[in-house]
Each structure stands twice: as C-alpha cells, then as structure tokens.
C-alpha cells in the first residue's frame, strides 16, 4: 500500500471527512514519525510495532570484484519490530475480538 491508497481507504471509511483533510493528517503523522527517527527517538505504535534507528559505525570493507579495501561510511538504518498483536495477525492466530496477553 502506498500513501495515496492509505488516504483513499481512510477517506472511504470516514465519509464525513474530506480527502484533503485525511491527506493532511496522514502527512502530519508520517512526517512526525520521520522527524522523531531523524532525532534518534524510538517510535512505538501500540499493537502495530515500533521503529528504531540503528547506527552502523564506519568500517573497512572489500570490493568483491577486485578485493581492494574500501572505506564504508557510518550510516543509520531504520528497524521495524512488529508488536505482539501484529505478529499474531500476520501468523493467523488473532481475531478482532481476541486479545493477546502483554
């Protein structure tokens, strides 16, 4: 699903809202999540999962074709860990009326 599909689905489920308002809300939420990750914060969405930033130190790598040493710069990766309910839904052991013990 891409952002425009998300906006369409939320707007369809909430006919009392204008699509442009839904798009503004979705953009604000995703923008705030991105800002928090850039700041190095952890973002947790209950029952969905959490996003964290993992820093990777600079290191020396090798060019696989030539075997020459190559400097690899430090970088940051975003990691996602699904919550218990999301994990249960993905594995087909969760129904909307059930709850998963924390």
Secondary structure elements and pairings:
Layout: H1 3-13, H2 19-38, E1 43-45, E2 49-56, E3 59-62, E4 69-72, E5 75-82, H3 84-90
Antiparallel strand pairs: 1-2, 2-5, 3-4
Helix pairs in contact: 1-2
Query: What share of the residues lie within helices?
Result: 25-40%
Order of helices and strands: HHEEEEEH
Mean of the pLDDT scores?
Answer: 91
Q: Kindly state the number of beta strands.
A: 5
* CATH architecture field of the largest domain: Irregular
Based on secondary structure, the structural category is alpha+beta
What does this structure look like?
The chain is built from three helices and five strands. α1 crosses α2. It starts with a helix and ends in a 12-residue tail after the last helix. Helices cover 37% and strands 26% of the residues. It has two domains: 41 residues; 60 residues, HU Protein, Chain A. A hairpin with a 3-residue loop joins β1 and β2.
Comma- or semicolon-separated keywords:
102 residues, alpha+beta, HU Protein, Chain A, three-stranded antiparallel sheet, two-stranded antiparallel sheet, 3 helices, 5 strands, elongated
């Amino acid at each position: 699903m891409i952002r425009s599909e998300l906006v369409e689905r939320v707007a369809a489920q909430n006919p009392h809202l204008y699509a442009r308002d839904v798009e503004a809300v979705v953009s604000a939420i995703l923008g705030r999540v991105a800002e928090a990750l850039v700041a190095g914060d952890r973002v947790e969405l209950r029952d969905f999962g959490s996003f964290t930033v993992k820093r990777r130190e600079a290191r020396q790598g090798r060019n696989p074709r030539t075997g020459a040493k190559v400097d690899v710069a430090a970088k940051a990766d975003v990691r996602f860990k699904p919550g218990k309910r999301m994990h249960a839904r993905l594995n087909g052991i969760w129904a909307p009326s059930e709850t998963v013990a924390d």
